[in-house]
Amino acid sequence: MVIFGFMLNYALRVNFTIALVAMVKTVVNTTTGTNETIAGNDTITTTTLATTTEQSAIAEADKFEWDASQQALMLGSFFWGYVLTELPGGRLAEVVGGRRVFGYSMLWASCLTLLTPLAANAHYIAVVILRAVLGFFLGASWPAIHPLTAVWIPPMDRSKFIANMMASSLGAAITMPICGFLIATVGWQSVFYFTGGLGLAWSIIWFLVVFESPSTHPRITPEERNEIEGAINAAGKKKKPSYVPWKQILTSAPVWAIILTHGASVFGFFTVVNQLPTYMKNILNFNIKENGLLSSLPYFGKYAMAVISSYLADYLRKSGKLTTTQTRKIFTAFAVMAPGFLMIIQVYMGENRTWAVAIFTLSLFLNGAVTAGYLGNGLDIAPNFSGTIFGMANTLSSFGGFVSAYMVGVLTNENPKSYAQWQIVFWILAVIYIVGSSAYVLMGTGELQAWNNPPEKDDAKVETEEGVPLNERGTVAVK
After folding, report:
1. 369: nearest Cα among 165, 163, 170, 146
2. Quick one: 277 exposed, middle or buried, by C-beta within 10 A (0-12, 13-18, 19+)?
3. Could you give phi then psi for residue 85, rounded to 5 degrees?
4. Checking DSSP bridges between strand 35-39 and strand 42-45, what pairing results, if any?
5. Angle (nearest 5°) at CA 144 between 138 and 147
6. Edge-to-edge order in the sheet of strand 27-28
7. What is the pTM of this model?
8. What's the longest Cα–Cα distance across the chain?
9. Nearest to 314 by CA among 394, 264, 226, 380
10. What is the pLDDT of residue 233?
11. What value does the CA radius of gyration of the chain take, rounded to a whole number of Å?
């Protein structure tokens, strides 16, 4: 359910970006005589979505005269709501449970997606508002998985489970060709009905089969429940902290190690994914969006690396070959620092089409290993506040999309076909990748932090760390 959930999560996010190409009226290029659609900073020929015959079947009456600024406003409005609920969503999941937060965020996002064609026909501002609210709901979904993981997944298996979050990459890889086919054969409205309908069906099934913890699952066997709870060392009446130790969290070096490397990783990912088509078109005279397979391969590769590296990481930890701290640092350096060095190679080899595509693809592929590195590290150091920590990291990193787009725009606006300006972009990426990952290598840890179980302000009872079971009276069990 988590794998399909994150696939649909990304589909609900990017469906508008894909459909927008077919939603705006075409403009005839007087130079080439071809029909083109202007979407954001990239020009995408409509032949990527349909043949000329199929295009003629799409009624112009169903399209809109949105200029570039209006399109940019609709595309960007998603992040307005997205950044608002990352931190609250993580904390809410810690209090009421990840099942509710993740499930309801997907449910309401799916309903809004079904209303997108109606909003588009009303006014572009209606789309802006709808996409902002959509982002508001989806923003809470990502950090909600960590609290759910903390009660369902044994510590030595968490890397493998966190890898499921990278199913969003599969969602991107599959959504693009499917949406293209739907637009060409049925019309752009079908994109929202299809993705929204799937999301709605998934939400209903989620609430039927997923529960907050093993102890609340009505169909779990006693043996399975005892195995899970025993492995998590929570086979007792573990009490959740009633407050967040903000001072300890905000002054914790391991927390900032996660935040900084997550910001660097996401900044690099956004820059590569969002600006790659523009770079290919302006510098290499090749539009990567014209090749559906090529544009999907990096996403498949990233998910494959996420799964492979996570299984390897958990094996190394279980076997005792590496400690959790060593594992997290090695895989973080591999996933975030290595792309930094690849960007340095890109500075000198980026004008070569083969080298450029290979380096970008390899960079995204290696980045999938973050699931074995820092991505689930909040569960290691503070499982009680893992949603809060991830919410903090994702809130700050969400601005990476804005900053990277602004950075590339400033550097390449006057001369977008200047390779020298793009070399500056690659140098900046290299520095951010390397500095961010270095911060984690220096400050990161896999050790449980003392503030994970803060003492109750009005309770003088003995507090225990996660993993120490309580007896029936609520005191420390003595063996």
Report:
1. 163
2. buried
3. -110, 5
4. antiparallel
5. 175
6. 27-28, 35-39, 42-45
7. 0.76
8. 84
9. 380
10. 65
11. 23
Instruction: Give the CATH H-level superfamily of domain 1-21+65-216.
Output: MFS general substrate transporter like domains (1.20.1250.20)
- Considering the chain, tell me which residue range(s) the CATH 1.20.1250.20 domain(s) occupy: 1-21+65-216, 245-454
Under 8 Å CB-to-CB from 343, ≥6 apart: which residues? 268, 359, 363, 426, 427, 429, 430, 433
d(CA 402, CA 374): 23
Query: What single DSSP character describes residue 463?
Result: P
**Letter for the amino acid at 180?**
G
The torsion angles phi and psi of 56, rounded to 5 degrees, stand at -65, -20
SS3 358: helix
Instruction: Give the C-alpha distances (Å, rounded to integers) separating 358 from 46, 80, 363.
Output: 26, 34, 8
Which residues, other chains included, contact 363 with Cβ-Cβ below 8 Å and sequence gap of 6+? 268, 272, 339, 342, 343
Alpha helices by DSSP H, listed for 337-449, are 338-349, 353-367, 377-381, 386-412, 419-443
pLDDT digits (tens, 9 = 90+) for 295-326: 667 778 888 899 999 999 999 998 989 999 99
- At residue 315, the pLDDT reads 92
Distance CA 332, CA 326 (A): 10
- Classified by CATH at the fold level, domain 245-454 comes out as Growth Hormone; Chain: A; (1.20.1250)
